[in-house]
Amino acid sequence: MKHETLSTILFVVFVAGTLAITYWASRNTRSAADYYAGGRSFSGVQNGLAIGGDYMSAASFLGIAGIIALSGYDGFLYSIGFLVAWLVALLLVAELMRNSGKYTMADVLAFRMSPRPVRTAAGVSTIVVSIFYLLAQMVGAGALVGLLLGVTSSSGKVWTIIAVGLLMIIYVVFGGMKGTTWVQIVKAVMLMVGAALVTLLVLGKYGFNLSGLLGDAAAQSGKGANFLAPGLKYGTAAQGTWGKIDLISLGLALVLGTAGLPHVLIRFYTVPTARDARKSVLWGIGIIGVFYLLTLVLGFGAAALVGHSNIDKSGNTAAPLLAGEVGRQIFGDVGGTVLLAIIAAVAFATILAVVAGLTLASSSSFAHDLYAHVFKRGEATERQEIVVARVAAFVIGAVAIALSIFAQSLNVAFLVSLAFAVAASGNLPAILYSLFWKRFNTAGAVSAIYGGLISALILVIFSPVVSGAETAMFPDVDFHFLPLSNPGIFSIPIGFLCGYLGTVLSKEYNAAKYAEIEVRSLTGLGAEQAGTH
Amino acid sequence: MTVQHDASVYEQIQSSDQFQELRRRYRSWAFPMTVAFLVWYLLYVVLSGFARGFMGTKLFGNINVALVFGVLQFVSTFLIAWAYSRHAAAKLDPLADELRNEAEGKAQ
Which residues cross the membrane (chain A) (predicted)? Predict the structure, then answer.
């Protein structure tokens, strides 16, 4: 049997299983708290796994292993930013948000502000960030299926994008947060088991001698010891000083972006108490940290055993090819086929779980923030809100499918780091000021979100990732005039500064409501309770 | 279901010594630690950009400074997460529970 057939069978089994979960979840989703927050009934461990499932996207699984396989050490640098970022979430955001919010990021931001402008800004930012992330994932899915299943026709890629989009719509529309969380838990377990298995086989092949593996990887790469040190991908010698500043800019966006990503933030609402939110982040940190250590071995393993000439130029095939190669070397041809098929199926599961989380975050924000609070001024019934959330999930999913088909020939991988930059520049300042600064007000919140969002977007539009470079989104035109690909080093301070200036230039502020959010966030008094069924 | 409390209740709690102590214990741990791990992380990123000779120095076998530095970022992240959970369980949770129970008792 060919690995493509086996991959397809395994993937169909995963889809059947997750659809069964979705059906079960749909029968247990009645209230808005069920739909938006899974009834707040997940345990800390379950939500920790789901955090891992939500966060370990194809970009971080296949992407980081691929960067390491092709450019060596720099891929590891990327993963460290993704991990350290969780400390911001743990120390400053997770518990306080759980205690003071309800369903969306805007619940905390609008807590003591004039609700309509703040919810509009937060809703816009949530949808923009989620769509960027979603596009990168779905376009990646189209390319990945082409590589792994041998589907090379352009209509094959289009159908892949449509299939991924439809499945994610079904998970979210019918399963809500309950179904989506379980899909992420299943995916996280599959991904950890798959990655650990291949890692053990690779290390076993080298007699658990990491230095030997690294030496082989460096020798095979043709770049020698440089392959094991930073500088082959980010801030290369050819890019000069601006390239190095770009690296720092990327690092800032990665470490500060996570705690402002809407699909990450709504995970904290799925548990009964703030203490469970803390526990889930602790589990998430453990799972994600171990996972990135595994990808380090996978990436260098692919460089050593597969060789960079056999890996596609995006690097996405490095991990699956490594699984096939190490399986073949240890267990023969059948073993290689089976392992490659397993890792390819895990990769599809990974994409599906992440896009579902993003669709849920953006449709929840549309229904709860824009529809219920802005259009209906808080007069919508719970039933109306859920109906709108489901319709929004369908519409956002359909828009994402259409945009992905349009963008499939464009290089949109940069949208992941852009999503982190926008989250760090607009959302994070607004969240931190809301939780910790008494004087913060409506004008400040709106200025922080729009200031961070717009400055990040403008900086990227005129950067080499959009035009003027071979690897740009539009390589044939050139209107770039900024040397940086990552806007964070400018847009993050701009976001914080806008939030500060907006606040001090407006006289409004509500001391009583600040007392409420401060007491609620630290003590859990008046926090939303878990649903009782 | 969610119990609504008067804003004045929150202001009373906020001005109490007990709450001020809880707030101090939380902030005096979380804020400096956030600054510390961000500085530690940025040091790593800046060295990766500007001190490549140093980062490429071999320590033993093919293990160089960059790899050890990177793994230390994992170690420090795990340690800080663990230390925070200990701090919160020992110093924050009991005080938060006391304040919440007291306020909920009054509301009934």
Answer: 6-26, 47-70, 76-97, 118-151, 157-176, 188-208, 247-269, 281-306, 338-366, 387-406, 412-436, 448-467, 487-505
Which amino acid is located at B64 in the chain? N
- Helix A442-461 crosses helix A115-149 at what angle (to 10 degrees)? 30
Note whether B78 contacts A285, CB cutoff 8 Å.
yes
**Contact between chains at B49 and A245 (C-beta distance less than 8 A):** yes
What is the C-alpha to C-alpha distance for residues A358 and A403, in angstroms, rounded to an integer? 15
- Rounded distance between C-alpha atoms, residue A327 and residue A318, angstroms: 14
Q: For residue B51, give how far its alpha carbon lies from the nearest alpha carbon of chain A (Å).
A: 9
Work out how many domains chain B is built from and give that number: 1
Rounded to whole angstroms, how far apart are CA atoms A393 and B31?
Answer: 38
Cα–Cα nearest to A373, from A32, A116, A103: A116
Residue B36 is part of which domain span?
A: 14-103
Whether residue A533 is predicted with pLDDT greater than 50 in this model: the reply is no
- Under a CB-based contact definition with an 8 Å cutoff, are residues B43 and B65 in contact? no
Contacts of A30 (CB under 8 A, 6+ apart): none
Prediction pTM value: 0.94
Mean pLDDT check: name the lowest of A133-147, B1-15, B85-99.
Answer: B1-15
User: What tokens does A528 get?
Assistant: 């939303």
**Residues A181-199 pLDDT 10s:** 999 999 999 999 999 999 9
The C-alpha angle A87, A89, A93, rounded to 5 degrees, equals 135
Q: A67 in contact with B at a CB cutoff of 8 Å?
A: no
**Do the Cβ atoms of B78 and A286 come within 8 Å?**
yes
The region that residue A117 occupies, defined by phi over 0 for left and psi between -120 and 50 for alpha, beta otherwise, is: alpha
| Min Cα–Cα distance to chain B from A300, Å | 12
Cα A413 to Cα A139: distance, rounded to the nearest angstrom? 9
The kind and range of the H/E element at A237 are: none
Residue A418 corresponds to which amino acid? Answer: L
Q: Mind listing the domains of chain A with CATH numbers?
A: 3-523 (1.20.1730.10)
**Largest CA-CA distance found in chain B, in angstroms, rounded:** 68
Phi, then psi, of A332 in degrees rounded to 5: 90, 180
* pLDDT at residue B23, rounded to an integer: 96
Q: Give CA–CA dist A373/A300, Å, rounded.
A: 50
Looking at residue B62, the DSSP 8-state letter turns out to be T
User: DSSP letter at A483?
Assistant: S
Q: A277 in helix, strand or coil?
A: helix
Contacts of A278 in chain B (CB under 8 A): 85, 88
- Flag whether B108 is in a domain: no
Is B5 a member of any domain? no
In this structure, is residue B66 part of a structural domain? yes
Q: How many CB pairs under 8 A join A and B?
A: 168
Structure tokens, A179: 């179904």
Write the residue in A211, A520, A526 that is nearest to B62 by C-beta. Answer: A211
If residue B58 lies in a helix (H) or strand (E), which one and from where to where? Answer: strand B58-60
SS (H, E, C) A387-452: HHHHHHHHHHHHHHHHHHHHHCCCCCCHHHHHHHHHHHHHHHHHHHHHHHCCCCCHHHHHHHHHHH
